[in-house]
Structures are given as structure tokens and as C-alpha cells.
Write a structure and sequence with these properties.
Length: about 140
Amino acid sequence: MRKSNFFKRLINKKGSNQAATLAKEKKDTALRIKPNETLQQRLGYLYEVEGILQYKQGDFEEAEVNLLRAMQNYYYTYEGIECLAIIYRKRKDTLSEVATLKKGIEMLTKENDPSQDVLIMELKNQLERARKRILRDK
């Protein structure tokens, strides 16, 4: 398994604005770890943070790998699901986009967190639009 090179990039670009931005994003997302998460979910969190940062930098291949690893470790958030769905949408891989959205909606719904309701509705809207694209393209 390839180790993350986030810290290498941070050290190599120590004085640049990009390094400061990446460090700030990493710190801001650290607040999302919940105290009742398993070690596996925390590992998933690290993969997701790396995947989202790679997505924002335009490295979609690596972002996809890390976001999928996060989901394999049972770590699902709206941001990770949305980034992965957008990657598939850009590749015109609508079936993978639909599968990702369905799984994300299922996992977020299981959490029974009322603060997630608006985000789940947004994912459902994206899922409906993806299904319409499938029908339109046939």
C-alpha cells in the first residue's frame, strides 16, 4: 500500500502559500473526527482528507484511490462522496457515480444524524440527476 506523501509535499514547500493552505485545510478537517469512531474509521478519515486535498489540486487519479480507501474503511462524509461522484461524472462513468451516491446515501442515513438531512437530500438530488443522464444517454 502506497503511503501518503502529504507531509513530504508540506516539507518541500514549507515557505509557500500552498503549504500553508494545505496545513490549514488539514487542521480544519481534523475537527471532523468523532470520539466514538473505530480505528478503522479514523484511518478512513485520513484517506479521505488526503483524497479531498488531491481532488482540489486536480490529481483525480490519486484522489479516487484515497476516497475509495476511505469508504472501504467505513468512513463516509458528504464531501468525500461528492468529490468521488464528481470524478466519475467528469469521466462520464455515470454507473459508478450512481453506485457511489447510493452507497453514500445509505451510509449517511444509517448514522441517524439530523444535521446530515440536508446533505442527504442534496445527494438524493444528485442521484436523480445522474439517473436522468443514464436514461437520456440510452
